[in-house]
Amino acid sequence: MPEPESQQPEEEKQPADAAQPQQATDSGDDTELSPDSELAEALREKEQFKRLAQRTQADLVNYRRRIESEQESSRLRNQQRIVLRFADVIDQLETAMKSDLIDDADAGWLEGITAIQKNFVNAIAAEGFAKFDSVGEEFDPRRHEALLSSPSADHEPNTVIAELRPGYTQHGEVVRPAQVEIAIPPPAETDDESG
Q1: CA nearest to 146, candidates 177, 117, 174
Q2: Cα 48 from Cα 123, distance rounded (Å)
Q3: For the chain, how big is the Rg over CA atoms in Å?
Q4: What tens digit of pLDDT does each residue of 121-130 get?
């Protein structure tokens, strides 16, 4: 009986030993990728990174454009703000030169004030700002700010009959609306007066 016992463990050993190399081989196939699948995975990752880089580059370009646009817009707003302050000075000089007291002023002094006013007008014109006339035009809320209205039989309703402060444009766009007086229809006469 000792022989069968010695044979039995050897038989059990052999199938177990034979099974182990197969399992090792099988498990090796599961963890290792074939060269084709590694290449496919690398190409897929490359495409993902490429798309990510393109998206990031597009975002950067859009960000730069937005910043440049905001800076340009801010620059134009600041320029308009400064120039419109000069427009107020021009308005005040024009008002002073229309005064009744101007007739009594020294001719040299008046000539100097007129030259200063013209220099202001030329300076803002060089920046693309231009005064526009409103008298006789139909009221346009984009170009005019109505401060007064007067009944008038001589003018069509909503016609600008007086300009209280001139308006300015820059490159065709209104940057300061004109303050105006507009005509309204005169009140209708009632029959009470005739009876």
Answers
A1: 177
A2: 56
A3: 45
A4: 999 999 889 9
